[in-house]
Give the backbone structure.
Amino acid sequence: MSTDPFPAADFDEWAETYDQSVLEPAPFPFDGYQQVLETLLQRAAPRAGQTVLDLGTGTGNLALLFAQRGCRLTCTDFSEAMLAKARPKLPGAVFLQHDARQKLPPALHQPFDHVVSAYVFHHFDLDQKIQICADLVHNHLAPGGSLLIGDISFPGRAAQEAFRQSISNWEEEFYWLADESLPALESAGVMTIGYLQVSPCAGVYHLRAL
């Protein structure tokens, strides 16, 4: 029987110190963290009243930026401890414990103006990334809506290897490689509006259905 490499319990333990750890100055893995969140907001250009699903909200840092623009937030995470940290920041949001690796539950079968996610998809292999993105853009976006993902990402394998050699705390996970991911997304009917490398190890994907 296979063991889950990313159990919710690990993130429950991390919840207490998560906000501190993502803001600590370090080259990896959260170099550019705040810039990634702000870039996601800028690319979405949300309007007050729009509906936003934050997939894997963690402690709610990204969702808070959208809430401050007057958006109506629905926030999911598979860690109840993370959600407990997010709720006080977002008193007007709807929260649901949900594993992003699974299909969205019936309670979330509605069109969203934007689906956003930060630092979640590097836990999924490329096939899972493509499958989740395709489902979101084809089945859960309102007309003209967009999927925006900020995550650990590199332009390609050579850039990833050069970065790996430059640091001492590398951890091997399923990091995005833009030159492989973008064609795979297009083959699944997902159009890339834009990809922006925000820091040496983080990028933002702006996606919608073809």
Notes: The chain has eight helices and eight strands.
